[in-house]
Amino acid sequence: QVQLVESGGGLVQPGGSLRLSCAASGFTLKFHAIGWFRQAPGKEREGVSCISGNDGSTYYADSVKGRFTISRDNDKNMVYLEMNALEPEDTAVYYCATRPDYNGSYDYVKMYTSEYNYWGQGTQVTVSS
Predict the structure, then answer these.
(1) Euclidean distance between CA atoms 44 and 113, whole angstroms
(2) pLDDT in tens, 19-39
(3) Other C-beta atoms within 10 Å of 88: how many?
(4) HSE-up of 88 (CA within 13 Å, CB side)?
(5) Exposure check for the chain: N or C terminus, fewer CB within 10 A?
(6) What share of the chain is helix, strand, coil (3-state, %, to 5)?
(7) From the centroid of its chain, how far is CA 114?
(8) 42 exposed, middle or buried (CB, 10 Å; 0-12, 13-18, 19+)?
(9) Where are the beta strands (DSSP E) in the chain?
(10) How many whole angstroms separate alpha carbon 97 and alpha carbon 5?
């Protein structure tokens, strides 16, 4: 069955870095998009970044553009989120999720949670001094 398992969260000081990993199983990464979402206390879950398993196209929310980098390794069925210059506002539970790959350019992607079929359990990221 489809399974997504996140790891790599933790406590980091402002300005620091973390790398999140998402281990995917039960489906072929090549035909899917993998997205990273986050949810802070009292806030709605929001899309942070996603990547095409087919051609590696990427999308980033404006709030993380230039600081976060998403990547994938199809041979290992892994997706990563490198997070740099972390800010307290990045504190949240981070989830990876999957859906069939988007049609068209990733420049116009909208990351709706309802369109993602399978989710991991989440990993906590806390940015604090």
Answers:
(1) 10
(2) 999 999 999 888 999 999 999
(3) 11
(4) 2
(5) N
(6) 10, 50, 45
(7) 15
(8) exposed
(9) 3-7, 10-12, 18-25, 32-39, 46-52, 58-60, 68-73, 78-83, 92-100, 118-119, 123-127
(10) 9
